[in-house]
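Quick one from the shared queue. A colleague (R.T.) flagged RlpA-like protein double-psi beta-barrel domain-containing protein as missing a structural entry in our internal table.

Convert sequence to structure tokens.
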Amino acid sequence: MFSKTFSALFLTALASAVSASPALQARQGSGIASYYFPDGGIGACGNALQNGDFIVALGTDTWDGGAHCGQTVDVQYQGTSIQVTVQDLCEGCASRGANGLDLSQGAMAALDPNYVNDGVISVVWSFA
């Protein structure tokens, strides 16, 4: 009886571990951040996006079919930290390597006051 119960619990735990998506687990990384102007367009998460919104478009390596829509991301650059909300997909971010992000113009300006001249910056980010 004990071995049957133990076996059932073990198999349930193993199945849960195997089925958990690695992209949904806590993730942190260094990556290249650029910025874009959503200009009121509809993002990949289905919402209208404005330039001043504190939003982020995830690269295809992190997108996970939109599973992170609405999730908060902490982004750090040279001692400054902001929080942004996942609202879009950045298909071009893959060309900048793993963990690339695209921040809205407003979020990038808050993170890097010299963003117009810097263009792209190296950041550290994690899901909150």
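The helical segments are 2-19, 60-63, 105-111, 115-118.
The first strand starts at residue 28 and ends at 36.
Added to the table.
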